[in-house]
UniProtKB/TrEMBL annotation:
This is RNA polymerase. GO terms for molecular function: DNA binding; sigma factor activity. The keyword Disulfide bond does not apply. One of its GO terms (biological process) is DNA-templated transcription initiation. Keywords: DNA-binding, Sigma factor, Transcription, Transcription regulation. Gene3D superfamilies: 1.10.1740.10, Winged helix-like DNA-binding domain superfamily/Winged helix DNA-binding domain. Belongs to the sigma-70 factor family. ECF subfamily. It comes from the Bacteria. It comes from Caldibacillus debilis. Residues 25-92, 126-175 form the RNA polymerase sigma-70 region domain.
Length: 194
């Protein structure tokens, strides 16, 4: 209970502009917030950015915490999880857009250069939401550099089927993007109004 009272006091002092109280709060909860973010996004730099965002919000709005609604740890965990999931949704939508762009380009070298720059965790998450054969065809074509005819031989399918698997896989990724845009704040909730 002493820690809880101390945290409330620190937040009150932060609201009054105390830099030293913010520093103590940061030292106490920095690792806690960072580890939650890292567990969700799987990338150290992203976890650091999310942690910074959470602490910036604490600095700007220290009165958001309500001790009647739960512990400071629960408050910080929910805030961190929300920020991390928002970041994943945005990156996932961006990834799908970039895959679509890459599919339209004729220069296979540019596709490879672009796709290697994407974060692997976001890509794998997006690809895990499409059927297995579509995923395999996309991975073989875009990431392993196999020609479509080579993929057809390895997957023991006609060349036309491989082209269809890649096209349908990209379409399924596009549908994921549309769903993400629909559920994100400001992402198009009015698109279907007449």
């Amino acid at each position: 209970m002493k820690d809880s009272r101390e945290d409330i006091r620190l937040l009150q002092e932060i609201a009054e502009g105390s830099r030293s109280s913010f520093d103590r709060f940061y030292e106490k909860y920095g690792p806690f917030i960072y580890h939650i973010a890292l567990r969700i996004v799987g990338d150290e730099a992203e976890a650091e950015d999310i942690s910074q965002d959470v602490f910036l919000e604490i600095l700007q709005k220290p009165k958001q915490f309500n001790p009647k609604r739960g512990s400071i740890e629960a408050f910080l965990a929910v805030k961190t999880k929300s920020r991390a999931l928002d970041r994943l949704r945005k990156k996932r939508a961006l990834l799908i857009s970039r895959l679509e762009e890459a599919a339209l380009k004729e220069d296979k070298g540019a596709e490879f250069h672009f796709l290697h720059q994407l974060e692997k965790n976001i890509l794998l998450d997006a690809l895990n939401h499409i059927p297995a054969q579509q995923r395999e065809a996309i991975i073989r074509f875009y990431f392993q550099g196999e020609a479509q005819r080579e993929i057809a031989d390895r997957m023991q399918k006609p060349l036309g089927s491989i082209k269809s698997l890649i096209r349908y896989g990209l379409n399924n990724l596009r549908k994921q993007k549309e769903i993400l845009n629909w559920i994100e704040p400001g992402g198009g909730g009015n698109k279907h109004e007449i």
